[in-house]
Amino acid sequence: MEAWKDYVASVKTLPRSVWDSLVRHGAPVTDRSRMETVLQNLFLHIHPTRVHRWSLRWSYSLGLGLICAASFLLLLVTGVLLMFYYKPSTVLAYQSIQDIHYVIPSGRFMRNIHRWGAHIMVVAVILHMARVFYTSSYKKPREMNWVFGLVLLVLTLGLSFSGYLLPWDQLAYWATTIGANIAQSPRELTDALGITPYFDPGGFQKTLLLGSRSVGEEALIRFYVLHIMVLPLLMVVFMGLHFWRIRKDGGLSRPEDADERLGPPGDDALPVFTQAQKKSYGLMAVVRGTSPTVGRGPENTVPAWPHLMTAEAAVFMFTLAITVALSFFFDAPLKEMANPLIPENPAKAPWYFLGLQEIVSFSAFAGGVLLPMLALIGLGLIPYLDREPGGVGYWLGGRDRDKRVFLQSAAFGLAAVIGLEAFAVRFGWLRDWFPGIPQIVITLFNPGTLLTFLYVAYSVWIIRRENSTRLGGIAIFTCLLAGFIILTLIGTYFRGPNWGFYWSPSHWPVH
Amino acid sequence: MKKLLLASSLVALGFLVASGLSENVFVSWKGYQKEYARLLAERAEDPARKREALATAVELRQFVVPDLHVIDRCVTCHLGLDDPRMAGAPNPYAAHPGNILKIHPPEKFGCTICHRGQGAAVSFREAKAVDVYWDYPLLPPNLVESSCGICHDPMALAERGAPALARGARLFEEKGCHGCHRLGGLGGSLGAELDSVGLKTKHQLVMANLPGERTTYRWLDRHFKDPQGIVPGSLMKPDYPTEEEARALTIYMLSLQAGRELPDRAVARDRHRLLSLEHDQGERDGRTLYDRLCRVCHGEGTFGTYDKFLGRFVPAIRNPAFLRMADREFLRASIMRGRPGTQMAGFDGGMTDADLAKLLEYLAGSERIPERRPDSYEKLPVGDAKRGGSIFARQCAGCHDPGEKGQVAPTLSSRSFQEKASDAMILRTIAEGRPGTAMVAFVGPEGTGFTGGELADLLAYLRTLSSRRR
Amino acid sequence: MSADDRVKEVGRRDLLSLAAWGAFCASLATAMIGMLRLPKPSVLPDPSLKGKVGLPGAIPEEEYRKVPGRNVFVSRSEQGVFAISSVCTHLGCVVAPAPAGFNCPCHGSRFDAMGRVVGGPAPRGLDWLKVTKAPDGELVVDEGETVPPGTYWKV
Questions:
Q1: How far apart are CA B80 and CA C134, in angstroms?
Q2: Alpha-carbon separation of residue C82 from A112, B56, C71, C137, C144 (angstroms)
Q3: Is B87 part of the contact surface with chain C (CB cutoff 8 Å)?
Q4: A169 interfacial to chain B (CB closer than 8 Å)
Q5: Is the whole-model pTM more than 0.90?
Q6: ipTM value of the model?
Q7: Size of interface B-C (CB pairs under 8 A)
Q8: C1 is a domain residue
Q9: CA B403 from centre of chain
Q10: Which CATH number fits domain B287-364: 1.10.8.60, 1.10.8.80, 1.10.760.10, 3.20.20.10?
């Protein structure tokens, strides 16, 4: 009978015991129990249990990293929903987008969110990189996380570009055709060397990308698989790495004297060194060298729940609000169905590649492969070449010298790119003066390479003049940013049919 | 942070709700369906029918025709299209006029196969698709006839269904359009091939000079009335068609859609024949061929005339004087490969050998033309180009000025002339002239005019012209 | 209870927090509704279930005619024209006409000439479909709408 009574009691307490086995430490109503929840819950433990007050200052991080993550989340959700209806076939793709647009409940809205969210993500990723750079947050011990960040930048652009083909409209078809031929552009070099028949990385890349000679069914399937499988998986993996390293590298970067600047914490903050019996010192055995938090006054931290989580929710909602507002007012573009016989004129790549397309208009190899690779490698090397301590955690180190160099570099960067472009637009380039000139000369000597050379030379000069690698870094990064912005603006707003220069699309010749 | 969270959440919520409302509540087709139910109830004979009408579900409707790749949602708003009671109702509720839906039930053909437009759309602006991204916007009602020609022989519909289409097809033959345009394997090569001109999109036409809506059908209509106004420098002779003729021709052009994939069941038997590019255009004699291919430039062909539009003399190819000089080999070459330096482009591939033979017979008329006339100019010595140059300047440059473009006479320096014209042909033309044109004979019957040496010098000079062009 | 747990309960119930998180949940819920609506299309891509089967006079008497391309048998008796669905009510296979009625090839359900179950696992007889007359005089069978067995369209 005892067993029967126990059985009945168990049945009576069934909901309670299931709940308790799910949530092992009571309702998270106190700071302490919440921290425990954060620590033990799989989904929450991406957060630290406590977060430094400096990290929560929005004027410091601008929430840009979170905006990236939030827009990725939005894209993931809307992307999965769109997959319900999207058919990756040259015959059906366009029709399925039309259906999504016209008759699928909330289909048009989801597609708009997916489209504008992608643009927001690209912008946010670039701005986030700039924030990290200008606050010196790539410095030791965060060098590798800067590199992971660059990988994420590349993945973001790859995802965005691979998604560009899927609607199978004219915009998609011709942008992808251009993209695939940029992938083939190493031939410019191998042709000049005469080794293309033996060693043809360009042709290999294009074939790998398209699976055939031109953009068609094979290419569509490949882009689809890249877009919904390969790149998102890589993205999740590298986001995991990125977040993991943020935690392991001591959280968001902050200045040495953050505690003094913030003053003592408020009364409501829970003391860190407590009498808790559950505290484990076992992990101390694996700590090598100085722990990132040693000597940093943990008293200036606040519990991640609710402070960090409110911030995260706020940034997520902010991203969502911007995206849905855009999606409400503007429909994602869908041009005529792809037609290999009628090229778009001008056929433009997605906006974030238009800076490159501007250089591509001189040399496909320089603009499509050489310079982006150089820029990526250069950016990746910044933390290893600039090892100057100090200045971490402030915008431009909080020093007037940095601000001065920043402004000078911005002025130089803008002047150089605008000057070179104006020259090329007004007077043409080598091919216009010497029609028979071999392409290899233009590949090596065009506004893009010239600009890069000027920027590098300028930053070297800054390093020597200011006797500071950090300032050299600021110089090259600012110049690159200025060049990217100006070239992108020119490609977006001032280039018309046949890549001619026009002050406004209203001056385009009508065809 | 909490304030930001609150504000962003409210903004997001607002836009989410607004988009939900704009998608589900404020949509035009729902309003149309409700109005239609009301109209139907008005026309109902008894209360039961009336209740039924008012209770009709408000839902999207469509015609799905898999083998035509058609999903047409027009019927979402055009609800009364097969209901005779809606005959006099206003659009979009009106019944479809005529009995065409009986023969072509929309369940089997959809709407857009005839009317064009974007069938997937559910609002009129997007379905009409003139100012949205869609290749084939809705045809105006008076051009819809063109779509009959996709599956039917236009001529078979002259009496029933598509008189304007048939008229267009006839006009195309009568006006000699084949002279420059190849269609169904017949015609010249000066103009564009027209076999699938009806599938062209507005991006394939020069729209710069078309005022107003930029659609292919408006382009065609204006282009027939004023070719040079739409395409500056066009070689197409203005024909000044009437409003009706232009419409008929536009309809015929829109119907030309060779290469379009159609299921067998949709294509009428008489059309199968016409859809193949090599089709036989039926019995045609030499006279018909002459009318279709030659008359547009050569007229009756008995008198040479100066054509203002072409800017040169058009030879009288049926003039006995001309024919006495020509041989079959020369005529065949001229017709098939064209006359270098003139607007006479070759018909190679644009007519069959049988056609060519019939045409030659017709041209010859009562004359007997030998296969090849003996040539007396083949064995001349090599001349001196310098001397030839001075003769040319004196005697020929008036019409053939090599520095000018668009002169009265053929451009002798053109590459096609230099490649195609044989030495013998050049010599004979100079000596005997080109009857029916301004080119007179430069060697008289009694040894007057050029000597053999002078002819050789001229030839040598002419051959230097090709190298002067860049 | 250790000393730490004496920390005061968090003042989470202040109005701003409540409003902020409330709005957060509300907009996520709204978004969720929009998302959940998406998988159910408002119009299916299949061809219409309604289809014309010919003029009443063209329907054969006392024998079944399969409507080409559709899962419908039509026939005419003294009472009028009727249509029977050829989709088995067990698990949706297509039944085949047999001398005594219809047999289902999948699990052996058998139906008599009027569609009533006479054997096998089918839970009920074959569906009778609604027959109406189109404005142009042809009969229309709607596969989407069943009627009680024994419902005829009077000639």
A1: 12
A2: 49, 23, 14, 16, 15
A3: no
A4: yes
A5: no
A6: 0.86
A7: 64
A8: no
A9: 34
A10: 1.10.760.10
